[in-house]
Amino acid sequence: MIDECARRHPEIGARLHTGERICKDGVGRYAEFAGGRIYWHPRTGAHVIPAGPIGEAFDKRGYEWNLGYPEWEANLALRDGGQCQAFEKGVLYTYSGGPVEGALIHGKIGDRWAKEGWEGGRLGYPLGDEQPTADGGRRQEFEHGAMLWHPSEAIEILAAR
Questions:
Q1: Distance from C-alpha of 159 to C-alpha of 161, rounded to nearest angstrom
Q2: By C-alpha distance, which of 25, 29, 21 is closest to 47?
Q3: Integer distance in angstroms from the first to the last C-alpha of the chain?
Q4: Can you give the pLDDT at residue 153?
Q5: Domain containing 26: what range?
Q6: What is the mean pLDDT of each run of 10 residues along the chain (161 residues)?
Q7: Helix, strand, or coil (residue 47)
Q8: Do 118 and 153 fall within a single domain?
Q9: Are residues 10 and 64 in the same domain?
């Protein structure tokens, strides 16, 4: 599956080692290429994690054992040089001026942010990960505001700054 993915993505370049490396879970596999890595898992299939901001953020966050395996190919052409890639535990965003480890978006806040137009919507890019609130909810800051999720399932969008 990794070799097949590499054939579909010639931009990944030459393989840097022979064979596949076994991931920490003993199930997944990956191979390193000049332009990134290809990870494979039976739940998600084989997908490229490109070198550069997304690959660096993936590394800083602890690889597949913290984010899960990639679920689709990275989008490297978002506004203002942003990039994103979906992993089992959320969508990782990087952009110029954003946190070097990227920002992870998922769950109810992620669902609502999608309805608001993702990074192209009124809130813009996430500035970091969700944080817990005193009432048991979650809060995530964005370029132009914030979202609050409450355990009652209510979501509040705070006015743009």
A1: 6
A2: 29
A3: 46
A4: 87
A5: 1-105
A6: 96 95 96 98 98 96 96 92 96 91 96 94 95 96 95 85 55
A7: strand
A8: yes
A9: yes
Residues 16 and 76 in one domain: yes
Instruction: Indicate if 85 and 111 belong to the same structural domain.
Output: no
Residue 99 shares a structural domain with residue 121: no
Give the whole-angstrom CA distance, residue 158 versus residue 49: 33
Distances (CA, A) of 53 to 20, 65, 94, 100, 137: 23, 19, 6, 8, 30
Report helix, strand and coil shares of the chain as percent, to nearest 5: 25, 30, 45
Number of domains in the chain: 2
Q: Cα–Cα distance between 119 and 142 in angstroms, integer? A: 9
Residue 26 and residue 84 in one domain: yes
Sheet with 131-132, edge to edge strand ranges: 131-132, 138-142, 145-149, 155-158
